[in-house]
Amino acid sequence: MDATFHINPLTTSVVWFDLDDTVYDFHANSRRALERLYHTQGLSRFFSSADRWIDTYEHFNTLLWKDYSAALIDQPTLRMDRFRLPLTQMGVDDCTARKMSSAFDPVYLDYLAQETLLIPGAVELIDRVRRAGLLTGILSNGFTEVQHRKIQNSGLAHLFNIIVLSDDIGINKPDVRLFNHAMKLSGIDIPSRHLMIGDNPSTDIAGASAAGWQALLFLGNPGKTVPDNMPAVSSLSLISV
């Protein structure tokens, strides 16, 4: 039987949500944007199908985001290499791949910001939290220019009291300094009264726990491994307030 989780308003003042794949269906929206990019940018020259292009891109993008979250690479490197590496793997010379990557990046981000699919149950959960009198916030590692557009275009902006992005201070989750920054902006300086809900145990949950916050892992995709003694739910509908 699926686990449930209760948010207690007596012990919680602020509920923070990761954006991508917790509230905003990044996986589905990104694949839509990448398929559109495949067709508009003529990527059939290099990849036999849109699915092959998307799978190759996602392979490198996942690895690069892990390095970016660990502060091993910077944002320009991530944004260049997530397109450059799939192209060079298919035989495109590095100089051409870099030029193509520079051209693809803003187009992809624009396409992505136009997609508006949300995680099932996300809006309903945020409404429950707000009706209970708690503050709501977004705490995301995403890029400022696209995250704000995604939030606005998806009709989410009015649901959150505070939006904190890693770009705001140049520090990514799981760095405790980003959580401390968010806590300061909320005006609630007691760490234990903050709850982080996110889909990434290494960034959302580890960072929140290190900052002294409550933390809840949203499993989302089936088959995700749950570390021992970590509160987790498979559906946002299983969270009550």
Describe the structure.
With 241 residues, this protein is of the alpha/beta class. It is built from eight helices and eight strands. The radius of gyration is 19 Å and the shape is elongated. The two termini are 20 Å apart. The model has no long low-confidence stretch (mean pLDDT 95).
Which features would summarize this protein structure in a list?
8 helices; six-stranded parallel sheet; two-stranded parallel sheet
Structural class: alpha/beta
Order of helices and strands: EEHHHHHEHEHEHEEE
Unreliable residue runs: none
Assembly level: single chain
Secondary-structure blueprint:
Blueprint: E1 5-6, E2 14-17, H1 26-40, H2 50-69, H3 75-89, H4 94-114, H5 122-131, E3 135-140, H6 144-153, E4 162-165, H7 176-186, E5 194-198, H8 201-210, E6 214-218, E7 232-233, E8 239-240
Parallel strand pairs: 1-8, 2-3, 2-5, 3-4, 5-6, 6-7
Helix pairs in contact: 1-2, 1-4, 2-3, 3-4, 4-6
Brief description of this entry?
With 241 residues, the protein is an alpha/beta fold.
